[in-house]
C-alpha cells in the first residue's frame, strides 16, 4: 500500500510539474502582458496545487501543512495576478493587436 501511494503521489506531482512547464511556455508565447499573466497564473496555481497534493499523497504525515500551503497558493496567486493586471492597465501597457474585448477600458471611457 505504501508503494502504491508513493507512485500515485509521484504521478500527481509529475502532472503538476507538466502544468508548470506549460505555464512557462505560455508566458513565453503569449503576445502581451495580460495574456502572459493569465497563462502563468492559471498554470502555476493548478501546477503548484497538484504538486503539493502529490507530495501529500506520498507523505501523508505532511498532508495538513501541504493543504495549508495549497490554500495559500490558490488564494494569493489569482489576487496578485489581478492586481498586476490592473496596474498594467492603469499605466496603459498596450494590448495585443489580437485583443477583441477590453471591458475595463470600455468602463473607463463610459
Fold and architecture overview:
By secondary structure, the chain is an all-alpha fold. It is built from four helices and no strands. The protein has helices at residues 2-29, 33-58, 63-90, 103-109. Helix 1 (2-29) runs antiparallel to helix 2. The chain is elongated. 18% of the residues are buried. The mean pLDDT is 92.
Helix and strand arrangement:
Elements: H1 2-29, H2 33-58, H3 63-90, H4 103-109
Shape by Cα distribution? elongated
Sheet with the most strands? none
Helix share bin: over 70%
Number of helices, where a helix is a run of at least 4 consecutive DSSP H or I residues? 4
Which class best fits the helix and strand makeup? mainly alpha
Kindly estimate the percentage of residues that lie in beta strands according to DSSP. under 5%
Radius of gyration: 18 Å
Q: Can you tell me the residue ranges where pLDDT is under 50 for at least 5 consecutive residues?
A: none
What is the average per-residue confidence, as pLDDT, rounded to a whole number? 92
Alpha carbon gap, first and last residue: 62 Å
Order of helices and strands: HHHH
Number of strands: 0
Amino acid at each position: 500500500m505504501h508503494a502504491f501511494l508513493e507512485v500515485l503521489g509521484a504521478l500527481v506531482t509529475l502532472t503538476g510539474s507538466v502544468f508548470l512547464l506549460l505555464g512557462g511556455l505560455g508566458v513565453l508565447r503569449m503576445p502581451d502582458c495580460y495574456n502572459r499573466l493569465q497563462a502563468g497564473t492559471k498554470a502555476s496555481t493548478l501546477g503548484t496545487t497538484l504538486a503539493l497534493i502529490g507530495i501529500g499523497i506520498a507523505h501523508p504525515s505532511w498532508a495538513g501543512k501541504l493543504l495549508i500551503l495549497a490554500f495559500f497558493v490558490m488564494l494569493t496567486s489569482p489576487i496578485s495576478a489581478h492586481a498586476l493586471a490592473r496596474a498594467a492597465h492603469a499605466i496603459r501597457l498596450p494590448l495585443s493587436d489580437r485583443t477583441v474585448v477590453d471591458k475595463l477600458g470600455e468602463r473607463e471611457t463610459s
